[in-house]
Amino acid sequence: MGFFLETLLGGLMTGMLYSLVALGFVLIFKASGVFNFAQGAMVLFAALAMARFSEWLPKWLGFESAILANLLAFLVAGVIMFAVAWLVERLVLRHLVNQEGATLLMATLGIAYLLDGLGQTLFGSDIYKIDVGMPKEPVMAFESVFQGGILVNKEDLIAAAIAAALVGALALFFQKTATGRALRAVADDHQAAQSIGIPLNRIWVVVWCVAGVVALVAGMIWGSKLGVQFSLSTVALRALPVVILGGLTSVPGAIIGGLIIGVGEKLSEVFLGPYVGGGIEIWFAYVLALLFLLVRPQGLFGEKIIDRV
Q: How many alpha carbons fall within 13 Å on the CB side of residue 178?
């Protein structure tokens, strides 16, 4: 029982990190109706900015505090992601209002390649580290309850708590603020939102800024765990089954979908892996997403589309 709970807890913590990346997809899709293939590049670009500025700022400003360096680097990287969001709206999206979804999709692919190349030009192509002080040593918990206790990775636990706090803050933002309600109105109907005076261009800047912050936090956490390297952009691919499972238009769906995928990957690898061979953790999420596409293509919480003829 203890081993099962240990595996389950590890899956839940991994699932929260998947949810964090999936949120970027959901936010932009809700606001613009396009699947943002640049989300992985945004995660990488934000992580590179934070990693490099945490190295550069102490040299430029002449201090040695790692905590202060990470804090300032996070703020600088946040400003950079805001600037990226503004430029994306100003130079790309503003000229594509009311265009076909395929046109917007190709635009996000172009943005992804631009950010990948620009990140390599500005910050370099080596492997960098982000050390935000999260403890990496696992600890034993509940030893008095289960024989041998449960091994808990403190870094994963803290990362999952950060992801959960950000998800909660975004949920409150969408539900309780005027800007959040405007975002939901734009998501429901662009033309109707414009007709009542909601500026579509400003909303797109806001939602790309929020997606940029989400990408920065995701990049910081994944960079701390895996190191900042260009394969980090593929983390977004692990979030694709999450948005398919939860629904492209649902913030709660991104959370639930991430938890289901995270738990399913860990349990299948541990308990089914010995019978079907290793590597099940790599393809399990995609097979599950395929099954959902066949049975319920809109996802668990996505809006069901009914065409009347």
A: 2
What mean pLDDT is predicted for residues 133-162?
A: 75
| Cα(42)–Cα(233) distance, integer angstroms | 8
Q: How far apart are CA 137 and CA 309, in angstroms?
A: 60
Alpha-carbon torsion, ordered 28, 31, 32, 38, to 10 deg: -10
The single-letter code of the amino acid at 169 is A
Q: Which residues contact 64 (CB under 8 A, 6 or more apart)?
A: 58
DSSP class of residue 95 equals G
| Cross-strand partners of 152 | 139
Q: Are 50 and 223 in contact (CB under 8 A)?
A: yes
Whole-structure pTM value: 0.85
Taking CA 207 as the corner, what is the angle to CA 130 and CA 79, rounded to the nearest 5 degrees?
40
Contact between 260 and 247 (Cβ < 8 Å): no
The model's pLDDT over 3-30, given as tens digits with 9 standing for 90+, comes to 777 788 888 888 888 888 888 888 888 7
Nearest Cα neighbor of 104 from 122, 119, 89 is: 89
User: Could you state, in order of their start, the residue ranges of all structural domains in the chain?
Assistant: 2-233
Angle of the 39-61 helix axis to the 200-226 helix axis, nearest 10: 70
CA gyration radius for the chain? 20
8-40 core/surface letters (b: 16 or more CB in 10 A; e: else): bbbbbbbbbbbbbbbbbbbbbbbbbebbbbbbb
Cα–Cα dist 16/160, whole Å = 6
Tokens at residue 88, please? 């994306």
